[in-house]
Amino acid sequence: MVxxxxxxxxxxxxxxxxxxxxxxxxxxxxxxxxxxxxxxxxRPDEVTARRIVVAEDAEGTVLGLASLEGGAPxxxxxxxxxxxxxxGQGVGRVLxxxxxxxxxxxGVRRLVIDSDPHAAGFYRAMGAVAEPTASVTPAGLSGAxxxxxxxxxxxxxxxxAWTGGGRAVHVGNVAEFNAQFADSSLDPxxxxxxxxxxxxxxxxxxxxxxxxxxxxxxxxxxxxxRQLGWTGVEVYDGLVERGPGLAGAVRARPALAAxxxxxxxxxxxxxLTRPFGxxxxxxxxxxxxxxxxxxxxxxxxxxxxxxxxxxxxxxPAQVRAAGRWAAARxxxxxxxxxxxxxxxxxxxxxxxGTTVVTAGEVRAAGGARALLRRLPRGPLLVEEFVDGPAxxxxxxxxxxxxxxxxxxxxxxxxxxxxxxxxxxxxxxxxGPGAVPDRAEKPLLAFGAAVGxxxxxxxxRGWFDVDFVVxxxxxxxxxxxxxxxxxxxxxxxxxxxxxxxRGGEHxxxxxxxxxxxxxxxxxxxxxxxxxxxxxxxxxxxVFVPAIPTAAFDPAPWLGVLVAARSLEALDAAEALxxxxxxxxxxxxxxxxxxxxxxxxxxxxxxxxxxxP
Length: 611
Hints:
Elements: E1 3-6, H1 12-24, H2 30-40, E2 52-56, E3 62-67, E4 69-71, E5 74-77, E6 80-82, H3 91-106, E7 110-115, H4 120-125, E8 129-130, E9 146-150, H5 157-163, E10 168-171, H6 174-179, H7 191-196, E11 207-211, H8 218-228, E12 234-236, H9 246-251, H10 254-261, E13 267-269, H11 274-280, H12 294-306, E14 318-320, H13 324-336, E15 341-345, E16 354-357, H14 359-364, H15 368-372, E17 380-384, E18 397-404, E19 410-421, E20 424-430, H16 437-456, E21 461-469, E22 475-481, H17 486-501, E23 506-514, H18 521-537, E24 541-546, E25 556-563, H19 566-592
Parallel strand pairs: 5-7, 10-11, 10-13, 11-12
Antiparallel strand pairs: 1-2, 2-3, 3-6, 4-5, 7-9, 8-9, 14-17, 15-16, 15-17, 18-19, 18-21, 19-20, 20-23, 21-22, 23-25, 24-25
Helix pairs in contact: 8-18, 18-19
């Protein structure tokens, strides 16, 4: 474990020696090192003035140093050097993050870094942005340096309010949340929900404990912790072999339940359930989740709009059909008028239970009744389809995220652009510029109004409001979700990376990166490590979000990528998808070479442990 402490004036000579050894590591000749010596020398009276700190190991051996020079609002990372024997062991990462943390405390908003060309890749990987001209030559040094800047940022106010500014216990009860609605459109085995429980890693910016129903690869948690700068995260996985009852499984283990509830840290679930309430000691409020119903949410939207004050927001017409045949009559009537229709189940997640039907599809199916026979059983909502912008590249699906704290105060988190394909959610992008300017103001205002109504109804927790954009650029609210969501995960990671690497990250969560072949665990770890390195070279961050689906018969991977520009974000996603496809193709070809009897089995699982 590397620890950081303030340097001492008596160490100045030894620290100067460390700096020169580190500089010499890059192969510079004696003449250049001699020319640099005066500039790089650390004098005893400078140690405190330059805010020099050192990183040392458990034995007290100094492994590196860094300085933070100047003051608010503009400061400089004057020195960051690591002993040659410790290069590549994460010491520089620890020192850099400490500099950013201290810069935030000083109120610094711009941090300038003049980097040795050999270290430019490190600063790029740490999120610093190179100036367009990219080089300067300070007095007394031979050769150009590369100039970077970053913007030290505190943890977002909403993120502090979410968990009280501290760490939290994350409970991945996705299947448990879904099961309480017994919607016929949901997979009764809840396989997808168990995969999505991996998102529990990101229910707040900094977890202390992850509680998961299925076993997860050890390499996954290690990489996620490295990428997000987490330490000391405990993982309890493999707790539920069958069914959705994660909170009940925890309560059946008294020692584990006591560990999770006795540390004074908040328990954060995917969504509220009665079993989670029993675990967390939280009163279960009857009707608290009533607006999870799409019909109830539609009624709430209508009441808000009836009060006025939301120009640019329109509400699509919706009818709750009395039965399947009533739904068929409504659908047929709309088809005869040449109109498309959205059919929705009362509940459903990620697009499950939502079907868009065109007039042509009704005719091709032989009529509305024949088409409805193919859909899940249960009550149906028949909703007007909102035509989107003529430009296929224009924003179509947007969302608002916020939460109601225990005192009933509504906190705005932000707006996100969603990727929705054929009615199914596939991912989202959050961060500066992700949502068009003209849409952001009405979206945030309407989302806040929904939050106030939820607070008044007694709801406490995370929520979102989803919208589609119509042909005139107006926003049409379609549903609210009273739980965490894919976009909320991206917001959490953005908050963490802004505090860890400097502000204003764009973060994209992509639910399904197809692999094409099941990967053994070692190869999944290798792929993720390669993707982390490749994205770092682009100035981006790669975080595997859903690893367990890589072992499915139809394998895929959920991922997060982050960058400071849309161009770098798109490049990182393209790299991830291409590399994943290439690895899948390689393993698919290898497995095809086996006779069926010789084909390697999927990863073995053991009860209560890791795969």
